[in-house]
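User: Here's a protein and a ligand (cobalt (II) ion). What would the complex look like?
Assistant: Let me lay out the input and then the predicted complex.
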Amino acid sequence: MFQKSPKKPTSSITFKTPEEIEKMRVAGRLAAEVLRMIHPHVREGVTTEYLDRLCHDHIVNVQQAIPAPLNYRGFPKSICTSVNHVVCHGIPGPKTLKKGDVLNIDITVIKDGYHGDTSRMFHVGPAPIAAQRVSRVSYECMCIGLRMVRPGIRLGDIGHAIQKYAEAQHCSVVREYCGHGIGREFHEEPQVLHYGNPGTGVELVPGMVFTIEPMINAGKRHVKVLPDGWTVVTKDHSFSAQWEHTVLVTDTGHEILTLPHDETL
Ligand code: MF3
Ligand code: CO
Ligand code: CO
């Protein structure tokens, strides 16, 4: 999501009840299921608006859920498709995917009033080495963050670990967008920065649910928004990659709500 001014939080962190957690498990599972459904369709020659249509119809007709991006702050489509040097919030359109493209597909569904949010990278045929590299680094960054989630740890610890790994791999962390609390609202407190200082920030408590979704660039960290008001691209045109899961803080650690049951990190 868009990083807000640090001065005034608009609302506070919500702690989910067991009943709410069960609903968030359902929403998370549905979001993960859309990524799995769309995978075989991500091929050379298809347009991103075709992928959007398949996801939209699946979410609405099969899952009887709501695609959260559609009309969110005026976003015109049901999913985000961010190709190559697009960092995030790419709008599905008539351009066809070509061999060597890499893209992030970001799915958020609302079921029974609760959100599930997850995204991953896809490769269309063999990808350029630089693109493969940044995809892998962003995946590792997400995993590093997720594995740290447990009561008592602070968000600054997580942000720091992600930043340290990304920069050691000669990649950069996008600052303007971050993970977020999630629940009845798409974007809740707290903001989950993918950089920071150990021992700072919100301390995790059981019942918190938030996303970890590092946006990692192969080149410099700087980004700009295109005139459509949504599409975020790298200023230096380098490849960018992102993976995202929704995670619950449990008494003993965490539970990834958007991880398919037959998958591990
Ligand atoms: N799913 C994105 C996130 O992870 C937000 C997309 S907002 C949209 O926070 F309007 F672009 F859909
Ligand atoms: Co998100
Ligand atoms: Co998302």
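Summary: The longest strand covers residues 102-111.
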